[in-house]
UniProtKB/TrEMBL annotation:
Gene (UniProt): artJ
Gene3D superfamilies found in the cross-reference section: Periplasmic binding protein-like II
CC per GO annotation: extracellular region; outer membrane-bounded periplasmic space
Protein name: ABC transporter arginine-binding protein 1
Protein family according to the UniProt entry: Belongs to the bacterial solute-binding protein 3 family.
Protein source organism: Schaalia odontolytica
Keyword hit for Transport: yes
SUPFAM superfamilies named among the record's database cross-references: Periplasmic binding protein-like II
CDD domains per the UniProt record, alphabetical: PBP2_Cysteine
Pfam family, one: SBP_bac_3
Domain Solute-binding protein family 3/N-terminal: 59-278
Protein origin, superkingdom: Bacteria
KW Transport (keyword) present: yes
Signal sequence, start to end: 1-28
InterPro entries, per the entry: Bact_solute-bind_prot3, Solute-binding_3/MltF_N
Amino acid sequence: MSAANARKKPFLRLATAAVAMVAALGMAACSGGSASSSSSSSSAQVGDRGPEQIKEAGEIVIGIFSDKAPFGYIDADGKPAGYDVVYGDRIAADLGVTAKYVPVDAAARTEVLASNKVDITLANFTVTPERAEKVDFANPYFKVSLGVVSPSSAEITDVGQLAGKTLIVTKGTTAEAYFEANHPEVKLLKFDQYSDAYQALEDGRGEAFSTDNTEVIAWAIQHPGFSVGIKSLGETSYIAAAVKKGNTALLGWLNNQLVELGEEDFFHKDYEQTLAPVYGDAATPDDLVVEGGVDTTSTN
């Protein structure tokens, strides 16, 4: 998994494809199931639908990132791709419906559920107590902590080096919340899109950029001249699917499916397909994957 060419593909094609295709991403990406996309057969609106109503409608609407490779992005063919999309495709397949993917910004991941724009948010969504007040999270399928990437020529290896300096973050992320709560001495430059945040780092508009360690490690591998000087910051966090607050039927279905997927090591296979070509030797699936909805390795 260490071949450089194999690791480059998702990131090399992301910037151009994502910008070109975001406007067109009101798309339906087919997973193995019914070809029907009619929603007239179900009286419940998107967001409030349970599994049976989604099956009747023939389509499930899933919020994903369109600019956060290797988790959710638009590939060179203009199609949704990444770790979260493989999971979304499996959800649709197990329901026997088509998956319609809708792009979301990090700060809008709760809003799209509350406003009935999607049935599920799968946008690399970290579970926090604040978010859990607004949405219902299923059990986790991934785990992360924060990382900090910076130019290798001025590498940030300790948070203390950022005092009085500018750190780039994406709005609505755990990185934004962590630094606002714990490091008010750090100036935050905020962006709606991950692609804009990375561009700001490359342009030198901040000393560093912080987001999930899984992402900055992958990005630095593909961008010579940048290093992840802080690979783990804060406590281990968990990523999970989210549904509209009170949609217990869909939540229960997702949790039951996670148990079944764990029996076949689904997320390890997802990792090998989507993440291993990017991370190479920098991470292993056991470091990051949660099977069956339960992290059996956590010591927190």
